[in-house]
Queue: 4 jobs
Job 1
Amino acid sequence: MSVHYTLNLRVFWPLVTGLCTALVCLYHVLRGSGSALAEPPDGADGGFPLLKVAILLLLGYVLLRCRHVVRQRFLPGSPRLGGHSAFSTRHFREPGLGILLESYYEHEVRLSPHVLGHSKAHVSRIVGELVRAGRARGSPGPIPGGALALAFRGDFIQVGSAYEQHKIRRPDGFDVLVPLRLPPLVALEPRSLGAEPELAPAFRGCFVAALKAPPSPSGASGGHWLRNCKPFADGFCVDVRGRRHLSATLVLRWFQSHLQRSLATVRYSLEGRCRVSLTPGGLEQPPTLHILPCRTDYGCCRLSMAVRLIPAVHLGDGVFLVAPPPPPFPSGPLSEFPGDLRAEALWGVNTARQEQKLLSCLQERAPPGACYLKCLQLLKALRDLGARGLDPTAATQWGRILSSYVLKTALLTVLLRQGAPAQGWEEAHLGECLEELVQFLRDCLLQRHTLFHCVLGPGGAAAEVGSLPKVLREATPVDLLAAFDRHARELAAARLLSTWRRLPQLLRPYGGPRYLVRCPPPRNQRTQGFPEDEP
């Protein structure tokens, strides 16, 4: 990864003033030691011009600082929290602010394509060996093998920001779906919980999956099928309203155990390339594979990486049920869960394939120089800047409300509302585009109080992404902010506006116009629209 160096003006000018003062003092010391040899005529002070220069530099620095303070505190049209004036374009009319954004992006946000490509390739090799070993081992646990065993399908699907070209800072975290193969005698009947009136809003984005007999030309009776698949139902299912449902909790427990056994199989073969370990996530998080560089690895990209391995059950058309349900849905004790439902039967739904198709569709229709993904990356960096100074609990809540998935959904929603091709998203209007996204998020938190999933439900982007399973097309729209109460949303909106108002001060330490010459050219000068996928 390339290293960029910037000059901090807050340190530079005091350093210059101090250096000039030191030179004056040194001059007077040397002059005093030689005063016996040469005395200035008529009492003239030969050091006065140099001292005058040092004093003028000091006064100039003080005046510049005073001008900056007056400009920030007393400039007319200062935004106020909660009003639309908070989104005036004053920031981006200030000279150099757009260049500050570019400098911050190049120094702190943009990933090196070289390092990202190497990291993704390394993760693909390690996870591929682990999944192949898991498929070869068969199924341990309640069903040791046979026609009713749960097993790895043998492939894996890379999802998340690293594979959608909007990851920021370091390629040290990845998400991978590991599809599971159900027994041939078992089929699923998924159902959305969005229409459950007694269910808390936070759980209406979850799904349950009842067992059913697959279509059979022999016409076997239901009782015969139930007897045949009883071992699988006893090991991986729970009763919900009189029917057997696939349990996300039991599947996740089996998945973690199977991964541990598979890792023991391949650990020796990986010793020469890296050190690997697996951290179980319990019942609230998927397990995490930690990949550490080996001491004998002299590659150019020696990074420690964490890979979340997520068990997934394929529903069709590239849509998967995943365990456990991803944020922002709550986890842990479910005090508001109805008694006739089972918490361990809850599944989340992953539509990463459809979202990647949607991003690709926008890429094809994007005008030259579009900065969609760049705005999303800067929005994520703005969220990270806003988390500074918060206590751990508040920082966690802030990160959940403005999660990367929520921010990506906000961008897709804005682009889909504008139609295609969306205008005004050129690189030259980067500040205004970022401003529009912040304003949309503010409205979602304070006025609309909703931000709906961009794929699920009748109002989703099914026309843009092609076919979807019927259960997703007919699902109730999923509100990504439903898990948070009004007070939490208002606090997040206030923090977001406060961070936006302080954006120039937050970005200034990262460089300015004179330091951008060291940065590579903007991405839109190398490619049009979205950057190409890295190898």
Job 2
Amino acid sequence: MADGLSLIPASVLRNLADKLYEKRKNAALEIEGIVKQLALAGEHEKISAVINLLTVDFACSPQANQRKGGLIGLAAATVGLAAEAAQHLEQIVPPVLNSFTDHDGRVRYYACEALYNIAKVVRGDFIFFFNKIFDALCKLSADADPNVQSAAHLLDRLIKDIVTESDQFSIEEFIPLLRERMNVLNPYVRQFLVGWITVLDSVPDIDMLGFLPDFLDGLFNMLSDSSHEIRQQADSALSEFLQEIKNSPNVDYGRMAEILVQRAGSSDEFTRLTAITWINEFVKLGGEQLVPYYADILGAILPCISDKEEKIRVVARETNEELRAIRADPADGFNIDAILSIARRELTSEWEATRIEALHWISALLARYRSEVISYLNHTFDSLLNALSDSSNEVVLLALEVHACIAEDNKNFWRLVGLLVRNFQNDRVLLERRGALIVRRLCVLLDAERVYRQFSLNLEQEEDLDFASVMVQALNLILLTSSELAELRGLVKLSLVQSSGQDLFVSLYSSWCHSPMATISLCLLAQAYNHASSVIQSLREEDINAKFLVQLDKLIRLLETPIFAYLRLQLLEPGKYTWLLKTLYGLLMMLPQQSAAFKILRTRLKTVPSYSCIEQLKGTSSENPYSQILQFSEDNRNRYAANVANVYNAIDFPSRLQQFEQMQHKHRMHSKSKLQSRNSTPSIASQEINISEESRPPSPLPEIMRPPKSWNNLRQLKP
């Protein structure tokens, strides 16, 4: 210390601590000259003493002016050392860096000025302190004093120049420093960081692309900054990196894909658009590297397909198509279960477009990896069944296509029909609103006869008799009205002349017995008029209730549709179709005379040719029931009649009638049991008001059983 004082005149030291800048500057020039002479003489110990004096007595002094003098003195000493400065930098630089945190803004300003002058002298040797200098500049970039910010900016530009021309800069040591600061929110710091990323990326010898995953998330975070300038700078940097990725053969897609997936869900539109654009390019370029990340990528794409921003939707759809077109092998890490999990999750999305694409993915996976998808079916089936209750018809139709694809084998077909029956039972609204659509579409996709036979088999064994009746009525109405089931209706019409029609009739009959009107409808369709009449005759008083009359009303109206045109034409030959007449008159006798259905059917029967219908009915009891079949040529008549007789006998109508009566007996017992149960636990309201069970309004009917407006006062009418 004494050596330092002896080397610098007292007047110089006094001026170095003066409050006037000019005096401090002149003192610094004196110190520069002294140090230069000592350097020429090789007196490095004395130079160290001078630097130590400037550090301890001035740069670290409690007095602000002395600290300012110490900083300018250290810069002057460096200038004096010139080429010899490198060996003294460890003494010179630390006190200057410490001054960057000084509470006095002017001291911080002079610290920037001093370090700028030091850096100009030592250039490349300065790299040794780069990390500490970078940390200090990062803080100064957000300094409250604009003058300090300006000085730090000038110093920053010089340091960038030094780094870009240096061959000693270590990007490996710098990246952790950069990564730690990428999530800072201060706009000045963000500009500072983006500036450094851009500069370093422009240096050919520095591979910033290889370290992109370390700071990519931070750049994306800046896209939502409130400052337009920062967003623009971040976007520019990202665009440059994306272009480099397109031109580079070696890119770490995996780590970056994880970041992009997160950013694709950002609340900021610009961030989502940029992320989905990157994902789009990655899907095109990534190849096998991205296989393990397909599920995550899909999870990011599907929500964006329904984005409110059109640009995002367009890119997301394109990316989705690109991803689905890639054929990956599970052996290469393609996780089918993970993809299915994403698709299942998105089936509950609030957006229709996303739900539709999720179903397309399940369908595509089934087409390519059927066995693997089937093995995960237990996790997927419930979601697919829930999709049938979707508010969108397109979603329901797609879900049915997926179900049909799954149900190609018998085991899954049986399971599908069984679960549909349970769903309809548990959710009557689904049956009412979607039942017809679901059944009709399944008949198209899986063969109508196969579908109806399986429904019938399930409903035959159904223990919930009320539901079975409603379900059979729904299936019957679909059978009688849907264009998709025209071929099936044609087969039922051949029940008395072909064995295939006979088998179908017997299969449906066993469950159609749950509903008298469905049974009668089936017989009319099969032209088994004798049996239809027998069914009508077997009905009891308790069978003819409001629900029955509602269904009868529907049937009478259906008889006027083109589907039953053949039946109306048969009325032109009352002599041949006497059992048809008896059946229709039987239906007429059950209808209230004031009802519209009664008038419709009576009007139709009045058009029957003017034979005496009563005379025709007298002889019906002794005729062969199958004598009503259309006549053929004389040569084929006997052979055809024999064939009809065989088929007719094979159906065994007496046994069918017994089967119907047994089922109706079960329904009667069930109704009585429910009535007794309600009577045994009467509600408080019914006890107080003394309402009888017969006068209490019935519970609301499903739409498929709801009466037309003309039946509003039906309860006062008697058949």
Job 3
Amino acid sequence: MAGEGGAYRLRCSLVGHGQDVRGLTRGLFPQGGFVSVSRDRTARLWAPDGLNRSFTEMHCMSGHSNFVSCVCIIPPSDLYPRGLIATGGNDHNICIFTVDNPAPLYILKGHKNTGHEDCVRGLAILSEMEFLSCANDASVRRWQISGECLQVYYGHTNYIYSISVFPQCKDFVTTGEDRSLRIWKQGECVQTIRLPAQSVWCCCVLDNGDIVVGASDGIIRVFTESLERTASAEEIQAFENELSQASIDPKTGDLGDINADDLPGREHLKDPGTRDGQTRLIKDNGKIEAYQWSVSEGRWVKIGDVVGSSGATQQTSGKVLFEGKEYDYVFTVDVNESGPSYKLPYNITDDPWLTAYNFLQKNDLNPMFLDQVAKFIMDNTKGQTLSTSAQFSDPFTGAGRYVPGSSSGSSTVPAADPFTGAGRYVPGSASNAVAPVGGVDPYTGTGAYQSAAAKVENIYFPKKDAVTFDQANPMQILGKLKELNGSAAEEHKLTEDDLITLEKLLSATCNTSAETPTAQQLQTLWRAVNWPEDIVFPALDILRLSVRHPTVNENFCSEKDHVQLIILLLKFLNPKGKEANQLLALRALCNCFVSQAGQKLMMEQRDEIMTQAIEMKFGSNKNIHIALATLMLNYAVCLHKVNNIEGKAQCLSIISTVIEVVKDLEAIFRLLVALGTLISDDTNAVQLAKSLGVDSHIKKYASVSEPAKVKECCRFVLNLL
């Protein structure tokens, strides 16, 4: 019994997991056993020892390919009389274990329509046959222990961190990164309670039905249905005042794109809402205020002031941040009343047709909506575009998928629309209206538009601009750098001022500040990237991001220092080295292509770089293979511009070797684009490719079903061969 011995004292320390322990749950042993999960990708079952002093590890379970974030015990049933253990991981999967087998009984894999598409954050038991899960993909899923997904619940607009079930029923509550606690009854979100904190980390339903939540403001709040336990009118008013004074940053993307000039006034609040939790924005005395409809109270409740948008359009007030990337617009699209709302991010440098296609693919929506979505984008952006070459999303960087903390690469897209069979509309451009000759649109099943044009260009190659690796979470990178700095040898240790200097550099090169990188910042970075190999990877990550900035690119790739940079990066392309260093070195080399100085350096050092880089083909890390393929693609872009037949021969030889070894389809796609870019408009390069037997190596990819871009790109290449 708690408290029977007075103050709590240490009972024992258990060594088993090699890394952070991320979750614990009791159960399976009436004497006080429990299950732990960890970043070491395992779950461990602990039972009290015979002396009841310590615990013995009874069972170590492995099945996840990334860290394990949550765990729950499924009660005994006739089918599994000893119960089951469910774990959720950062690999998007849920593993179901029996208590006597280290391998999973089932793995509920993450993919569209069934499993989660991002990190699983919470699990909760409904019965001995069913359980719930929540994840960073903003969905809740109900499962049978057999592995069948019975239902998917949508309501949150950002990560869902926690889930808890009401006693004696299947209703539940969730909390997440959208500042909300949501209450679900009979499968519907019946109430949304906003909190004056961005992250609502955890929730718990008590035996009496009250709900406890903990948030990033350090406050625990308890909500109740009971009139007897309800707070006083003064306390409720104080909570509403605190909520109304909260600042809502439109850059989180939760409110979509905001144009203050188009917002209605306070009279807009006279009309009742249509559903609980509905958000409405008004403009009052020059300020933008956000209100939420409360069904239970029948009124609009103010949930905060929207900052950074009053009196300005999105183009003058800055970008919208959505899923870690900056956009000019983030639209909210309601497909139907009973289904979820979808966020549609868009930059004015993007192709509206390609954006529409990626949006439909990502959300598994009917491709017949392609024209409708593209027109919606163009109508709501008023045809704005940029005529200059700029960085923006494209299919090579994966920007069409949800990648937390990521940013898009740079690309340009030719004018023919590959999705409908019609000429793609490019706002502000008349000369690009190229249409195909006949044919049936494979997405709508209807006849494509006809034109007298004689030639249709594919959207894949020749690629005109380098592909870069822009995904980043600066806070995590800096956190890891500081952590490793603490354990570094004295001769390598950075001072507090050094760490602040690198933080400013990262801010300047990740477009979160307008400052230009300084010589001192670059000197500090150079010291950091010369750390020992076992701790250098966060510094390499900063280099990878920084070299995209023109100032940094010019400094590190100039005549004075370029040899040092290449020697440094090639040192990490050692087949026996650490994979993290190999990956980041390859990505840094790819990012060097973003500016003229970097392109010049990469072409001058081509022999040394390619000779060392090809060694990376032998590993099994798909991300390394993608980076290697991207390096070849960026070389292909440069070689196509200068028509260097010797360089093309070298690049074609490496591609023909690598494409036989790698298996990842994204890497294959980038190699195909590189191949198509190299041989476009060059009969000599075509003959070289044929002599290397490239056509026989790639034919099998002409019939893959998914992703479609691999099949389409392969067929375009084969047409040239």
Job 4
Amino acid sequence: MPVDRSLYIIPNETPVCQLDAADAFKTLSEKEKKYSHYVAKASFDGALAVFLQVSPESAPIFYVLYRLFKSESVEQLKEKALSVGFTDAEWQAFLVYAAAFYSNSGNYKGFGDTKIVPGVEQTKIRALLEKSAVGTDEKVMKTWESVEKVIGSLESNELQLGFGDKGVTCYHSSNVTKADAEKIDRFFKQRNVESWNSRLFKEVGSDGKTTYTIKLASSEEGIVSEAVEFEGDVVQIVRGDYALIMKRTHEWLDKAIPTAANKNQEEMLRKYVEHFKKGDIALHKDGSRYWIKDVGPAVESYIGFIENYRDPAGTRSEFEGFVAAVNKETSKKFQTLVANAENILKRLPWGTDYEKDTFLKPDFTALDVIAFGSSGIPAGINIPNYDDIRQNEGFKNVSLGNVISAQPKQKMNFLDEHDEELMFKYHKDSFEVQVGLHELLGHGSGKLFQKNLDGTFNFDTNKVKDIITGAPIATWYEPGETWSSKFGPLASAYEECRAEAVGYVLCCDADILEIFGYTGDLAQEVKYVNWLSEIRAGLLALEFYQAEQKKWGQAHCYARYVLTKVVLEAGQGFVKIEETKGEDGKPDLHFKLDRNLIDSVGRPAVNTFLAKLQAYKSTGDFEGGKRLFESYGVVGDTELHWRDICIARRKPRRLFVQPNTVEKNGEISLVTYSSDVSGVIQSFVERYEKSAVEDLYACWKDDQKWF
């Protein structure tokens, strides 16, 4: 079946939203501005590593685009592009490609994991390069030649991220299979080591012997542990992955130490500096311990290898770093939610045995992002992701206010006029409620049943019963097992689904809505819009289902689709999806949710499902959890038909243009850019010094032997 190229081209009408931090930045003291600047630089420079994690061609494409847009202005380049045969639409498509490539930290979507190709032939891009100021630069042109064939190609194994035989990734060398990754997971478990900041490379010698090299991200290079035999193969751990980039990261963090607000921030930064030097995850965990103690700072940040959504094996993590100013007014709502959390947790459908022994009250702040380096910017975060710290020491929640409020006004598909009006009016309010509940009481709830090294358990084996069977607990997490290692590639979608479901269920309670400032009829509207928005999102998620591979790419989309299937199964006319004809005469859908049935049909259905999700998660029963989850994740003929309509009518996802912090004569200022694709490009070109881009180039050259 021929590939529909349009699915992989970012549309020319893609909206660009300003990540507005100007007012928030003004509230900071000079010292806080300096701290923000250094952490922002560390975050953005460190995020160059993401281009090396995504695909073999992402780093060289970055190099070529950076050198091109650095050499001449967008206006000058447009003139040259038109002179070599670009149409106006193709020039816009090229700018959109560059902006989307930068925003996704590579040529695969940060949200959706599918390839991004330019909406203009590569022969024309070559002609533009040759005509431009970099046309005589041999290094640029040779780098272009290395990616020219792959930048626009859509072979079946290039369409999405995945293991080397079915997809693209740089978390592993291209010869690593799922079986290889699972073998190394067993090696990690045996040694009680975690793989967050690692990559896996495989070599087969002439004697047929396989050597696996686990490479840790660090500026220092060398052997961490000598080669050992494991299951008939050889495994060695070395450090020095992305060495030049990690060096830049810890040098910026080192500069931030004198500007820290308190001892916790200082110690946190020192631990991070050592972590990025040595690659030891224990140092990052220690930094995270100081971070959770730093309660209520004016400037919030986090940095490291954090989220494992995009590793095909589900265990290695993408680099991300952010710095943000705390919005004290909005934060008050979240702090009230935290204060009431212990009582609210009792409403969740699993009882005290399945909840942490003591609820470790986290810091929960509303932030305006100043800088966010990664493949995408979330609306809320619950971190750290280390199970041992989250369960026993605590965590933090953040809601990213300027991300939530940056909404382009686009037609909302599949809704009638009245519902669309309500969505425009209350979506920001409902989303803030959902993010708050999802992060604090979703990701922040529930206990993992663990066996300790000394053979004891962290739960009463005589008293605690299985929620589903009523029998004694029969499975748990062995020493060395974590949530991610046990549930693997399913872990992210499963956990997002659990957190989403908590939000759906708890947004029904009047006292919770009141914490956010909504009472009476207004509270009812916010509750309705949250259900409407989230359940409809499960329908729209079908766009991200990879029909040829019969697999879900994006964790949040898979999660929402599963919950939409749960409420469709509940029946009683609660949710209706009907095929219609649009005003253009083409197939359309009509989505309707009966607001009068939220409490009597929707909530009980989600609640029952949520209890099962928690049961399998707490007991580490991967097989049971997988069976349950995948039974709702099935995409049948009806849903495939809906998917075709969703794709035909899809709206482009917004891109963000972020500001830059600049230091001049010892003072820090915030530079903003226009809300269009040229603004995104300019922000990236000005964000990076040439030396940083040369470091990325050197790391790429070093990686080439593996891909």
